[in-house]
Amino acid sequence: MNTDLPLLSVVVPAYNEEAVLEQFHARMSALFDSLPRYRCEMVFVNDGSRDRTQAIIDRLCDTDPRVAGIDLSRNFGKEIAMTAGMDHACGDAVVIIDADLQDPPELIRDMLREWESGYDVVYARRTVRDGESWVKKATAAAFYRTMNRMSGRVHIPRDTGDFRLMSRRAVDALLQLREQHRFMKGLFAWVGFKTKAIEYRRDPRAAGVSKFNYWKLWNFALEGITAFSIGPLKVATYLGLTTALFAFAYGSWIIAKTLIWGDRVHGYPTIMVTILFLGGVQLFFTGVLGEYLGRIFNETKQRPLYFTQSLRPSRVDEVPVRAADSPLRQLPYGERGSLIEGR
C-alpha cells in the first residue's frame, strides 16, 4: 500500500440504523472506488443501538478492510458519537455524515476538490429539505436566526447540518474542545479556518425513522443557545432593570397621589396581577439561571466524554493500490442524490 497517498476518513455515527447501514456501505464503497488518489476508510460509531447495528458493523469490518468500528459503552448522544469518531479518525481529511443517506455520499467528491484548492472546512448547505414538515422547517429557520443574533462573533450557517469535510488541522483544533455539552454546529463554527459551502438538495431518509422528535429538538436548541450565548442572562438583566424603573416611577406616582388627594383602598385586582406577573418573571429567569448553573456543574466534574466497549481499526493499508495519476473521475449521484451547483 502506498502510504504517501492522503487518507480520507469518513465518520458515521449510527443509532438503530440496521435498516440502512448496508445500503450506505454500498454507496460509500462505490465512492471510495472512484477515488484512486486517496486511501479511504469508514469509521462507524455505534451509539448504544438496541437493534442489529453493531452486528452489521462487525460483519462489515470482517469483509471490508476499509471499515473501522467503534462501539460505545452506552448511548451518549450523536454529538459525543461524532467526537468519538473524530478521536479515532486518522485521515488527512475527515468527513462527518449520517448513515440515513439523506446526505448523498457522492457530494464528498466536490468537498475533496475544494479541500485540495485550500479550504480547511467544506460544509454542505441544504437548499431543499425533502421529507420534513413545514413545522420543522419553520422552527429550524427561527432557531438559526435566534442563534446568530445571540451568539455574537460566532456565525452558524443556516440550513447546515453536520455533513462536512474538515482538514487535519481543523479536526485537531476541534478535538481540543472537550466540553460536556457539545453543540457541534457551534463548535464547528467556533474553530474557524478557511471555509466553503456547497449547496445541495437533501433527500428523505432511505430507510428507518428519524431519532429526533420535537422535544429532543427543543432541548437541542436550548443546548445551542446556552452553550454559545449569555443572551438569556442579558435579557433577564434588561427586563429586571426595566421593571425596576417602572416600579419606581409607579411607586412615586402612588405616593404623590396619596399625599395630595388621599386614596381609599382600591386596586386588589391590580395588585394580584402585578404580583403574579413579577412572580412568573422571577421563576422563569430562575430557570434560566438553573440551566447555566447545571452546565457549570456538569463541566466541573470533568468526566470523560465517553467509554468504548470495543474498537476495531480499519485495515486500509491492506487495500491494493490502483492507478492514481488521473483526476477525480465523475461518479453518478444515483436516482436519489442530486447536486445543486451553488459556488
Automatic annotation (TrEMBL):
Residue ranges annotated for the Glycosyltransferase 2-like domain, each copy included: 9-174
Superkingdom per UniProt: Bacteria
Annotated keywords: Glycosyltransferase, Membrane, Transferase, Transmembrane, Transmembrane helix
Gene3D superfamilies in UniProt: Spore Coat Polysaccharide Biosynthesis Protein SpsA, Chain A (3.90.550.10)
Chief location bin: membrane
Record's signal peptide: none
UniProt key word Transcription: no
Topological type in the membrane: Multi-pass membrane protein
Cell compartments where the protein resides: Membrane
Ranges annotated as spanning the membrane: 235-256, 268-293
Name under which the protein is recorded: Glycosyltransferase family 2 protein
Organism name: Jeongeupia naejangsanensis
